[in-house]
Amino acid sequence: MVPFVQLLTGPFNFLLRDPEEVRRILPDAERSLPPLHRVYLEDEAATPLLGFPVLSTPELDALERAFEQYVIQEEEVELAILQRSAFDSPAFQGAWERYRLLLMRAAENVTTASYGRSFPAIFWLWHSGTMARVLRETPKRYLRRDATAGRDWGDLLKYRVYQKVIDRLTNLNYELAQRLSSDTDEEEEQLFPALFTRMRDNVLILSETHVSPNLAELSSYFNGCLRLDGRDFRTRLLRLVEWYATELHHDPELARLAGVLGLPRTDDPRTHLNRPGMVTFLAARPGWDPDQLLSPQLVHVWENLLLKLKEFELLQAMRRSIVVCERRGEDLVGQVRQPRAGTSQAEWLTLSPSTRPLDFMAPWVVDPVVSRFGLIYDISDFTETVTMLRRSGTLEQDRSFRMMFRFQRKVNRLATQHRAKLEKYLGDGAFYSSREARYLVGLAILIQRAYREALTRGFPFSKGLRIALNHGQYRLLPIRIGVSTESERYEFFGHGVVELTRLTTGKGHRDIEEIRNLLIINGYPEATVNRFFAPMYQHNADVVDKQEQKRGFYAYINSNGSLVNEGIVATGELVSRLAGEKAFDRIFRLVDGDRTWIAVKLEVPGHSLLAGFRKLGMAQLKGLDNTPIYEIVDAGLWGDHTLLELRGGDLVDLVEREFRATLGA
Predict the structure, then answer these.
(1) What are the residues whose beta carbons fall under 8 Å from the beta carbon of 106, sequence distance 6 or more?
(2) Which pLDDT belongs to residue 1?
(3) What is the pLDDT of residue 513?
(4) Are residues 24 and 115 in the same domain?
(5) Which sign does the torsion angle of CA 96, 102, 105, 110 carry?
């Protein structure tokens, strides 16, 4: 597993790319920092970016502008207090209120919609970048207002403004946590953004965007915050680097000690001084001159500053991992790199349409509705088979369930090969999702083949296998709640899952079977239950298509309009999407008795498959609108001599034409 720090991008002038260093700075880094997400490009086979996709919206831009205007008003107030002059109180209150309302809207959204997904931490990473860019420019704005006051007091006023901003934000976060704790049944401490607390305690994180090895950007920090002569401090550090290089060259014992401490041999001895405690150790050596190098007080300043610099670079690297996203027409594009020095042009790449960027100003933050291709497979009469196995003894039960385990393992391996994601095991089956129809169609055929093979080996669950495929809208329910080391986990629910379930089980007969099994489980005599339901079973027998059921796997719509699925079925939407993918270039006509399929050749990982499609009609599915249903068969079982290649034509049109011809007959 790649260490967390190795996934971050530099530059790192003070932070060592060492997991132990990160643990010293942030002992709970992997828990307190949000995990990096894979952000896929348009070509999902390409190496994904690692970061946080954040959607740029007018409301989010307004939050940035509101913060800048509020800080400018705080600067006006501090300058007025210093000069004992009046300031525009209504303008100040108006700027603060605009910012407060937008900030509270975003903060409440990320808190209530998080469900353990680190939304508050990602939001404060993003917003802290805005804060740092604005506060970094405070001394320059003072110089533009009043050159004399800016030169004399600009640095000091910057940190007064900084403290006012931090105090107000801290109070707002406490108010929000207190208000939401009663609604969410969580403790206030759990709702307060922990990452904001860490940022608040390190002034560099919220006031700087970059620090060079020579600390040139920290002039205002030395002058206004530490009340030190920054130029003198940097000069002493340069002398220290030169002195240490000389000592390292002439003192073999010091060189060996550096090696024991794991310090790299390098042409730049400055990297050795970035090890915490190293300067303190060197200050005790006989050749140390506190007048030319660092005094004991300045040694202490350096050691404290070094820890702040390391933490700053770590969190700045996290901020650089934010991928700003925009919607341009139908495409989602992401700014994958910051503009190069001296240019104003950012690099933008088209992202995968499956990317769900974070919209901090929307209540859900991440839209829970996704469009996916779904597949459910289900073993027929599983409960009945299990009941029979209970009477067969422990050894037979154990053997049967081991075979079931091996079958499900094989199905899962096939799904992985075909880019299908396991969403949930369903006891005797499973639910998979995918972003491409051809892979799910290929997977369905291969699952059916795996079942045939299992039957030849004595697979006891031999009553049949049902598979259903669709394309629909699903809602994602996050189920990782609270602090956890697990990766993000979601449950699919909504119309798409209901439709797949109905396609798998059919309608009326399954309802009767479920009630029958429930009564038997609750102690009613099986013979009595069977006698009670006999008339209903007889009615169902009247609408059974015996010709269809002679096939090994079959599907049809009976005279009641109910779907009988003991094979593979799919919705019209999935077939239409498959045709739109243009995943095949050869189309065939397959005739078997009075049934006709339109077959296409699909190239999927490790296999070249022939998938046959036949429209069954409109099915009445429980609780859903009438749905066009298609049967899919493994057309390769018929042999090439039964296939007639067709020249041109659309898959959906050809299947529809055959369906109408059947109705006409």
Answers:
(1) 60, 63, 123, 127, 360, 361
(2) 43
(3) 65
(4) yes
(5) negative
- Cis amide bond preceding 11, omega within 30: yes
Asked whether residue 264 is domain-assigned, the answer is: yes
Into how many domains does the chain fold?
3
> Smallest Cα–Cα separation from 378: which of 443, 461, 299, 452?
461
C-alpha 209/C-alpha 134 separation (Å) is 10
**CB contact at 8 A, 371 and 472:** yes
Q: Are 177 and 171 in contact (CB under 8 A)?
A: no
Instruction: Say yes or no: 315 and 416 in one domain.
Output: no
Between CA 504 and CA 564 the distance in angstroms is 9
Residue-wise over 314-325: b if at least 16 C-beta within 10 A, else e? Answer: bbbbbbbbbbbb
Residues 401 and 312 in one domain: no
Does 279 share its domain with 139? yes
Say whether both 175 and 310 belong to one domain. Answer: yes
Q: What local confidence, expressed as pLDDT, does residue 508 receive?
A: 42
Asked which of 300, 322, 344 is the last residue of a domain, the reply is 322
Q: Are 86 and 149 in contact (CB under 8 A)?
A: no
Enter the tokens of residue 281.
């150790």
In sequence order, what are the residues at sequence separation of 6 or more whose Cβ sits closer than 8 angstroms to the Cβ of residue 342? none
CA distance 468 to 505: 9
Closest by Cα among 94, 95, 97, 116 to 105: 97
Do 8 and 85 belong to one domain? yes
- Which residues is 592 bridged to in the sheet? 595
Return the closest-CA partner of residue 78 out of 147, 169, 133, 139. Answer: 139
Token code pair at residue 617: 């009609």
Alpha-carbon gap, residue 446 to 377, rounded angstroms = 12
Range of the domain at 626: 554-664
Q: Which two tokens stand for residue 437?
A: 């129809």
Does residue 13 lie in a domain region? yes
Overall pTM surpassing 0.90 (yes/no): no
Enumerate residues 6+ apart whose C-beta is below 8 A from 560: 508, 543, 620
Task: Dihedral sign for Cα 22, 28, 33, 38, please.
Answer: positive
CATH, residue 500: 3.30.70.1230
Does 381 reside within a domain?
yes
3-state secondary structure 246-286: HHHHHCHHHHHHHHHCCCCCCCCCHHHHCCCCHHHHHCCCC
**Same structural domain for residues 309 and 377?**
no
Q: Are residues 187 and 312 in the same domain?
A: yes
Please tell me the distance from the alpha carbon of residue 600 to that of residue 597, in angstroms, as a whole number.
10
8 Å CB contact between 274 and 14? yes
Q: Are strands 568-571 and 465-478 parallel, antiparallel or unpaired?
A: parallel
Average pLDDT of each block of 10 consecutive residues along the chain (665 residues)? Answer: 71 87 82 86 81 95 97 95 91 96 96 87 96 96 92 94 96 92 77 90 95 94 94 94 87 78 66 88 90 95 96 94 92 74 66 89 86 89 74 78 89 92 83 91 95 90 90 73 50 72 66 69 78 65 64 85 89 92 89 90 90 90 80 88 84 92 74
In a domain, 307, yes or no: yes
Sign of dihedral through CA atoms 117, 118, 123, 129?
negative
